[in-house]
Design goal:
The protein contains 6 helices and 6 strands. The chain folds into 2 domains: 1-35, no CATH class; 48-199, no CATH class. With 199 residues, the chain is an alpha+beta fold. A hairpin with a 2-residue loop joins strand 1 and strand 2. The strands form 3 sheets. It has a two-stranded antiparallel ribbon with strand order 1-2. Strands 3-4 form a two-stranded antiparallel ribbon. The protein has a two-stranded antiparallel sheet with strand order 5-6. The protein is 38% helix and 18% strand.
């Protein structure tokens, strides 16, 4: 494709490069823009090689979720010993696994979105603890009440097991945070216990 013309001009040698346009167009149509995956897994079929190559984007997304403070919060790390750093990494990977399982269940129910958006949606489920003073002697009555939320969100929470029905009330099993978590509470199933069920 790249050619040059060499000629002598007096005592000097003149080199004039130029591009063969027809060869360039042929190369653009046949090879430019193509990626050629190479592998040492010679026993794999072509379909397996292509699937592994396309899975690269899923791995990159997993690392992005690990770094996201709203998903797995791999950082910041408030410890420095090797043992604690290993445990910190293990918890982060486990939280990513739990999040992926939760996202997969939600997708089977028709949810379309990312894990971060799903966590944000579920964090909108809020439960208030109501304490009623006793009429006479005795202990006050304490029970959880689900705050008003989008009916679609309520159904999603019920389907994912984030809400447990007790009579006509629901108890939330999904903990919420008001800011980026420094630990993994946004991926824990937290049971808000009450002395009595809802009304």
């Amino acid at each position: 494709m790249l050619r040059c013309e060499v000629r002598q001009h007096g005592k000097a040698v003149v080199i004039q490069p130029w591009v063969h346009q027809q060869a360039r167009r042929k190369l653009e149509e046949s090879s430019f823009g193509l990626r050629l995956p190479a592998t040492t897994r010679h026993e794999w079929s072509r379909a397996e090689i292509i699937e592994a190559y396309r899975g690269q984007s899923r791995v990159e997304r997993a690392f992005r979720d690990l770094k996201d403070p709203w998903v797995c919060a791999f950082r910041p790390q408030y410890h420095w010993t090797d043992q604690k750093l290993v445990v910190h990494a293990l918890i982060a990977v486990l939280s990513l696994l739990l999040g992926r399982l939760l996202l997969r269940r939600a997708q089977r129910l028709g949810y379309r979105g990312t894990l971060r958006n799903l966590i944000h949606r579920l964090s909108e489920i809020r439960v208030a603890t109501v304490i009623e003073p006793p009429l006479g002697r005795g202990r006050p009555r304490v029970y959880p009440v689900l705050e008003d939320c989008d009916p679609e969100l309520r159904e999603l929470g019920k389907a994912l097991g984030a809400l447990e029905q007790r009579g006509s009330a629901y108890t939330a099993f999904w903990c919420t945070t008001s800011g980026p978590p420094t630990d993994y509470t946004n991926l824990c199933a937290l049971k808000l216990s009450a002395t009595r069920g809802g009304r």
